[in-house]
Amino acid sequence: SPPFPVPPFFLSGVNMSEVATQVFAGQKPGTSGLRKRVEEFMQDHYMENFIQCTLEAMGNDLPGSTLVVGGDGRYGVTLAVDKIIKMAAANKVSKLIVAKDGIMSTPAVSNVIRTQKTTGGIILTASHNPGGQNGGDFGIKFNCANGGPAPTDFTDKIYKLSCEIKSYRICNNLQCDFSKVGTTTFVVDGSHDFVVEVVDSLDDYVQMMKDIFDFGMIKDYLKSVKILVNSLHGVTGPYAERIFGSELGAPADSFLKTNILPDFGGGHPDPNLTYAADLVKAMSEGDYAFGAAFDGDGDRNMILGAKAFFVTPCDSLAVIANNLELIPYFQKNPVNGYARSMPTSAALDRVAQVKGKECFETPTGWKFFGNLLDAGRIALCGEESFGTGSDHIREKDGIWAALAWLQILAARKQSVEEVLKDHWATYGRNFFTRYDYENCESDPCQKMMDELQAFVDDSGNIGKVFTSQSGKSFEVSKADNFAYTDPIDNSITTKQGIRVFFSDGSRFVMRLSGTGSSGATVRLYVDTFEGDKEKQTKSAAEMLAPCIEVALQISKLPTYTG
Ligand code: VG1
Ligand code: CO
Known about the structure:
This protein is α/β, with parallel strands linked by helices. 33% of the residues lie in helices and 25% in strands. The model has no long low-confidence stretch (mean pLDDT 96).
């Protein structure tokens, strides 16, 4: 600090410097932003390069822009927030709205972008991927003015810039304490103002939930049943305690892992039967009527009923669609249609058909719902990967999904299992499962996908019969690699997953994940439809085993991945 007293104006004076850098290979955003191992992300200049390219990809929108910044609390978030503040100032951003301590869930950031009408936002998360300094993942993703993840042409631009970058701009002497709510104005190079507004991470989001749901009715319902909520040490902890606890009256023993930890306690912050096994165990042993788990950044959800009755995300989506009118928000806002990602089962389509609504099938990744939501064509959408959401924001929303379920249960006065059984009795049941083969070698997986491409290209395969060990036969009725034409802007996205359909209505899908940080992850999705009431209560494992076996036969996955 200078050896003489300085007036306040000069205290906030900061300077921009241009720092030389070199290209890092592989800064290509995947399904949802750039995700890499912490070790890779924390190399000198690596993060700065990607932030610079993200800002530059905004083009003419960058100077004078307002951006929101928040993250899921994982290792690296506070460092990244500090860098973004310094680099935004140097890149002529006018204002940053920063979450207190850098912590804000992905759906809450989407909400702030929309309500504050900002130019966009930067979310610091690798979502359901593990975190922590040793072996964890870090991630950065850009959302546009509609509050949704940047579309592919934007992320392609980031990647292109990252292959050419020579320098980045930063105000190294800018010091901003974002642990306290308040507004600070900095003057950059004595020429332009840069404002940082640190905001409460919860307030706006909690208010939005109160506007969407009937909290009074849910609060009454929670007087009669016990719930259990697991935040997996991710960002939803404080949101869950405030909403389900302070607002809706659930007692303190309704919460698991609601303290945010930078390494998620060493676990995978992924709400599924494997990584939220503690919730499953507690639910099956206790007398809880409802359970929910959320992922690291708060956009995913898993729903369980009493005795850990599991609701597949595909069914969850269909049930919510079927009961939308029980949620006050949808009594006031039009519901013109629904959408699901291609690998998601067609349970939703059956509801759409009966209700006379449009139903869209999009590629994997929430960004593909954006145009449909903006155009008012859909009000509800979801993915099999534990993602459910609506047009209230432009991200999937874990807490919203749990509240939607509680509202439906409160109104129908039924258990989760009863709601599901009623649903299947009305619409039939779509059995669904997904297998993830993680940490595979990339080359053999690519070869497998090439071979599957050749399989679907060869029309001679239509009519071919494959038989499982148990003796069940499957005749190929159709096969392709999923391509999508956006109904709003007509953009075309190809090669979104190999699909093989069988004449009995079963199907398998195979694709490579776009959220992994190293190697390859193969995803195999299998589903079938069952109209026969007797068979609807069988386990998915039993119902789908023969088709899974045939999928492995056709793809030769065991040979390729070991
Ligand atoms: C996965 C899921 C996809 C989801 C994406 C981001 O992508 O399959 O449905 O939208 O993760 O979710 P991929 O390419 O690995 O299959 V999150 O909560 O990780 O932002
Ligand atoms: Co997520």
